[in-house]
Design a protein that fits this description.
Distance between the termini: 77 Å
Largest sheet: 5 strands, antiparallel
Number of strands: 5
Radius of gyration: 28 Å
Order of helices and strands: HHHHHHEHEEHHEE
Shape: elongated
Strand content: 15-25%
C-alpha cells in the first residue's frame, strides 16, 4: 500500500519533449497576444495601463511554465502550492475587469501547459467576444461642479443651477463662512445633463462665471480630467 501511494505521488510525472514544450509556449504566446489586444480595445483613458497589459502576457507564459514543470506530479503540485502561498501580491486593481483578465491569463496558461489547445482557443474566443461587447459599456459618468464665491451670491447661484439643469443637479456639499463671507457649492450631475446644458447655453463655466461674486468654477469628471 505504501509503495503504491509513493508511486502515485512521485512517479506520475510525464516528461515533455522539447517539441511539446515549445508548442505549449507558442500556443500560450499566440493566445496571450489575443488577451493583449482585447485589454487594449476594452480599456481607454486613465484606466488603461500598458505595463499591466504586458504583465498579462507574461502571466500567461509563466502559468504555462509552471504547468510544464508540474505535469501530473501530485507531490510537486502540492509543493508548488505551498511555495506560492507565502507570496503576497498587493498590486492595485484600477478596474474590476482587470480581475477577469488575470484569471483569463492564468486559465490560458494552465490549458496550454497541459496541451489542451482546443479548450484554450475556444474559451479565449468566447471570452474575447464577450469582453469586447461588454467593454463598450461605459459608466454613467458623474460630474462634480464646484463653485466658489461670496456669500452674497448664494441665492443667484442656486437659481442659476436650477435654471441650467432643470432642478436635476444634486447638491452634495454647501460650505459657507460667515466670517470670511465666502461660500462653496458642490453639485453632482450626469454626463448627459452636462452635455445638454452645455449645448444649450454654451460653456457651463463661462455661464456661471458671469454671476457677480463668483471667484472660481471647476468641473471634475470621474476619469480624473479637470476643466477649469
Amino acid at each position: 500500500m505504501k509503495e503504491l501511494l509513493y508511486e502515485s505521488l512521485v512517479n506520475t510525472t510525464k516528461s515533455l519533449t522539447l517539441q511539446e514544450v515549445l508548442l505549449n509556449f507558442a500556443a500560450a504566446g499566440i493566445i496571450a497576444c489575443l488577451i493583449y489586444l482585447s485589454y487594449r480595445a476594452s480599456h481607454s483613458g486613465a484606466v488603461y495601463s500598458e505595463r499591466f497589459n504586458v504583465s498579462l502576457v507574461m502571466l500567461t507564459l509563466i502559468s504555462t511554465l509552471v504547468m510544464n514543470v508540474i505535469g501530473n506530479n501530485i507531490a510537486l503540485s502540492l509543493g508548488m502550492v505551498g511555495a506560492l502561498s507565502i507570496v503576497r501580491f498587493r498590486t492595485a486593481i484600477k478596474d474590476p475587469r482587470d480581475t477577469a483578465y488575470i484569471f483569463w491569463a492564468i486559465a490560458v496558461g494552465i490549458c496550454c501547459g497541459v496541451s489542451d489547445y482546443i479548450i484554450a482557443a475556444i474559451g479565449s474566443g468566447v471570452i474575447f467576444v464577450f469582453l469586447l461587447l461588454f467593454g463598450l459599456v461605459r459608466n454613467n459618468e458623474r460630474i462634480l461642479i464646484i463653485i466658489n464665491g461670496s456669500s452674497e451670491a448664494q441665492e443667484e447661484i442656486e437659481d442659476k443651477m436650477e435654471e441650467l439643469f432643470a432642478g436635476r443637479a444634486l447638491l452634495r456639499v454647501h460650505n459657507a463662512s460667515a466670517k470670511e463671507q465666502v461660500s462653496e457649492y458642490i453639485y453632482e450631475v450626469s454626463d448627459k445633463l452636462m452635455r445638454k446644458a452645455g449645448s444649450e447655453s454654451g460653456s457651463i463655466q463661462r455661464k456661471l462665471s458671469r454671476i457677480k461674486g463668483i471667484s472660481h468654477v471647476s468641473v471634475v469628471r470621474q476619469d480624473d480630467e479637470i476643466n477649469q
